[in-house]
Amino acid sequence: MNDPLFLGTLTLYAVTTAVYLVFFIRQTKRLRDTARTFLLVAGVVHTVCIAVRYFKAGHTPLTSMHETISFFAWSMTWAFLSFRWRYEVKNFGAFVSPLITGLMVLAALASNEIHELQPALQSSWLPVHASLAIMANGFLALAFCGGLMYLRQEREIKYKHFGFFYSRLPSLEALDNLNYHSVVIGFCLLTVGIITGSLWAKQAWGAYWQWDPKETWSLITWLIYAALLHQRLTVGWRRRRAAIMAIIGFSAAMFTLWGVSYLLEGVHSYVG
User: Fold this and answer.
1) Do 186 and 133 contact (CB within 8 A), yes or no?
2) Can you tell me the distance from the alpha carbon of 160 to that of 166, in angstroms, rounded to the nearest whole number?
3) Domain tally for the chain?
4) How confident is the model over 190-247, as pLDDT tens digits?
5) Within 10 Å of residue 198's Cβ, how many Cβ atoms?
6) Domain boundary residue among 116, 141, 169?
7) Beta strands of the chain (E only): which ranges?
C-alpha cells in the first residue's frame, strides 16, 4: 500500500479508535468530543480519498476487494455519524470505531492496483447497485455492534454484575431501538440493491436471476432480515432474539461479501 492519502485516512481512524477506547475507560467528556471530531475528520478525508481514486480510475471505485472494503468502512462511518446526529447511544463509538479501523486495515492489505473494467462492469448500474449494497452493510454493521452490546449488557444485568461494563453500556431499551432502526434502513437499502442488481443482470447477461452463489447468498441474507422484521412486527420479537438475529444476519452479509468471492465460483468472482 503506497497511497499516502489512504494511509492518512487509516491513521485518523486508528487515532479515533484509540481515543474512543480511552474514553470508554475514563469516561471523560473531553475525550468523547475529541473522538467524535477525529471520526468526522476521518470521514471527510476518506470521502476525498474515494473521490481521488474515482478520478484516477475513471470509474466508480467499487470493483476490487480493496475498494469494496474501503467503501464499506466509509459507509459505516457515515451511517454511524448520521445516527449520532439523531440518537444518543452511550459509548457506541467505542464499539463501532474498532470495526471501521479493522476494515481499513484489511483494505490496506488488499491490492490497490487499478484494473481496467471488465465488459460486464461497464454499466451505469455499477455505482447504483454496488454502492447501495455496501451502504446496506454499513447500517447492518451498526445493528451487529448494537447486538453485541445488548448481549453483554443483558449478561451484566442477568448475573447482577453492576460494574465496569454495566455503567458504560446503554440501556437495553436504547440498544433494542438502535437495532431496529439500523436493520430497517439496512434492509431497505439491501432490497433496492438486490432489485438494481437484478436489472443489471438482465442487461448484462439476459436474465434477472441466475442463482449465482452471490445472488443466492444475498437472498439468504435478505430472508434473514425479512424474517427478523416480520417477527418483530407481528409477534413482538425484540431484545435478545432481535440482537441474536442481527448478529446472524450480519454474518450472512459478510459471507456474501467475502466468503462467496473467495470460496465459491460464479459470475461475481471478479471481485477479488
Assistant:
1) no
2) 9
3) 2
4) 999 999 888 877 776 677 777 777 888 889 999 999 998 888 878 766 788 888 999 9
5) 16
6) 116
7) none
